Amino acid sequence: MRRPTSCQLALLLLFLNLCRGQGSDSGDGRSDSGDGRSSCHRCDSHLSCNCSHGGFTHIPVVTDRALTIDLSCNAIATVMDDDLMGHTRLRALDLHGNGLAAIQPSAFDSLWSLEELDLSDNQLAALNYRWFRKLEALQQLNLLSNPYSCLGSPPLFQGLIQLRRLAFGGPALEELRRGDLSGVTQLEELTVHANNLTRYESGTLADIWPLGRVTLSLHGPFLTNMPVASAVLGDVSYPETPITLEDLHLIGNWSVQPLRESARKRIRHLSFRNLSVSDEAVVSLLVVVDGVPITYLSVDGITLTGEGRWEKASYTDQRSIDEFFAQDVVVLDVFKFFSLLDLKFLLQYLRRVSVINSKVFVMPCITSKLLVNLQYLDLSDNLLTDLTLVETLCGDHETLKELRVLNISGNPLKSLSTVSRLVTKLSKLTHLDVSRTGYISMPPSCPWPSTLRHLNISGAKLTTTTPCLPATLEVLDLSNNNLRGFTQHLPVLRELHLSGNKFLSLPPGQLFPNLQTLTIHSNTLNMFGRLDLQSFRRLESLQAGQNQFVCSCDFVNFLQSALKGHEGIHLTDGEDNYVCDSPLYLQGEPVGRVHLSIVTCHRVLFVSVSCGLVLVVGVLLGVFLWRLHAFWYLKMTWAWLKAKHSSRCRQRHRVIEGSEALLSFDAFVSYSERDAGWVENFLVPELEEPSESDSGDPRTLRSLTLCLHKRDFLPGHWIVDNIMSAMERSRRTVFILSENFVQSDWCRYELDFSHFWLFDGHAGGEAAILVLLEPLSKDDVPKRFYKLRKLMSSTTYLEWPREEERRPEFWRSLRKALRGGDEDD
């Protein structure tokens, strides 16, 4: 009785959940599409959608761009006509293990590009040719394990001209008729499960040619209906066609009779899978294939019910058997099993022997001596120890002298020195596999045959390597150990496999001048670079993914260049295997898609360039602001704020003292030092002394008081405070304008601040009196004094006359302006 499959278990669990009223949640990639159908969103970047084990009861909505959809192991009972509508690009559809009972005739009509279809392990009781009529691109079809009794009519596969792999049959298949496979002209692989086949028309499978590998499950016909089994085997037996027979119980002579037809066709490749056989049947089988040019004989999962007494077939000719493969061999009574010494007729011709996972603990030396032509021996996954290995290999130069390849991996071996000593006698040995053993160390030195080229010590527990390794090696596999470094010089090594260790960096390339392939993925590498790889002079292929990469700028730039093939080395494990482990914000990001900013990668250069740009921009901005006199505005604003603060403090002090501000001067005079002679010789005497030409009015006889910076500014005080104080205590301000005034830095500063004070709300334009000592247009006044320029355009100013006779009139006008219009002309 067969155990339930994983899909059947999943269906059972789903049924129990449904009975309890529990459904699948949306955390598994499912959602409701809005029209009552569920959706599946578990699609990868290659448009392959895995919707298996999702608990779906109907075909879910999947993107119509999908190339592969796996809907296996759900509970889909029916496929409707419109369930797969629009999937014109779909290439592979897997519906196995659903309990599928009905498919509407047009359900697959839109799948024009479909190449693979799996409908196995369902409940399809009848097959309909209309399912496949539009699937002209179909190359692989699996209809196994469904309860149909025949393939039906018209022929199912009539239009499948591209079909190359076909599997059909099940527990209910009873009949195969000629024409059932009409349209199938050639196949690379044919699988037929017909354990209960009762009717078979000869020639049903005979029209398929060329025919590749054939797998047949004919348990029932072999036991009860040998003519049917013989007819089936006769239709598919060709020298070029490998045949595999499954689920057979060969008990007596009669049970192997159907194989006579295959023997008659001189087949060359014969395999058995899940076979139970008696001694009598073994002898009969050897008799049947006597003289048949079988070159390959394989048994996978064989139970030997007898005692190994096969000497009765010693007269048969088995010299054509070149390779014998046995896996999962079970001997029911191993203690009674007869010696193989009487099988010299069979063993002496074999060149390739594999006995895998069969609990072999020893092969007697005398049996080994019978294998005189053996070139390949695989005893992997057995129970050989160092002691029994000595018995198996004998340790002399005559035993297994033709052996080229020895695989003793997966055995509980402990001593590498013992193995090296034993194989030294094998003078033609080129390949040795001692992987998955119990080696924890290497001896300092080891003898090896000079012919050894390939050595596999992967999957052991080595922590270091020593010069024990032979210098003749071309291929060395040390994967999945506990190595942290490798420093052995191997001059002719072409391939080195170091995956699954604890390397922090690549090994020195100078040690391997001829190395072409290096695999070092799944270690603890942080990074590697161009210099590391340049030490390998002939390296062509590298696998270094699945490491703990620190995504620095240099590493990212180098690896992205290498992934594009610009470094002369091919990264064969693909871009997705190179993933950042740090820094934290890049963790899990494929290196090929990382984009680091210039700030991160060129910090010094960035700072230098930034500072340079800031300096240049600052200079340009300074020049621009200077041209716009922005500095003047800033300087005046600061001076004004500071002076204003000082003025408020003085006013507050006066209020506290109970006094008011007094006007001490009639005018504050602003002039250039170069014009001081005119001010002192003309202006001051004329205004501060009563004029004899005045009319005698007391008002006109009163002298005016002028504020001059030379005379009236307080020493030790800030110039701005002096100007501010003088202007506060003066009724008017007189500007003595001349070319000297405009050119003088001191006068410009005084004029700047006076301009800021006079025309910023503290006094009106009538408080300023302009006196031109020489002709001066408004264009000669700096543009930043825009209010003064405007005042010159809108206000009458006084010009100093050159003629003596006009000067009295000038002085009268000036006095009148200073006294606010109280004088008469």
Automatic annotation (TrEMBL):
Q: Which residues cross the membrane?
A: 604-626
Main subcellular location: membrane
Q: How does it sit in the membrane?
A: Single-pass type I membrane protein
Q: Which GO terms describe its cellular component?
A: plasma membrane; receptor complex
Q: Which UniProt keywords apply?
A: Disulfide bond, Glycoprotein, Immunity, Inflammatory response, Innate immunity, Leucine-rich repeat, Membrane, Receptor, Repeat, Signal, Transmembrane, Transmembrane helix
Q: Which GO terms describe its molecular function?
A: transmembrane signaling receptor activity; triacyl lipopeptide binding
Biological processes annotated in GO: inflammatory response; innate immune response; toll-like receptor signaling pathway
Q: Which family does it belong to?
A: Belongs to the Toll-like receptor family.
Q: Which PANTHER family match?
A: TOLL-LIKE RECEPTOR, TOLL-LIKE RECEPTOR 2
Q: What is this protein called?
A: Toll-like receptor 2
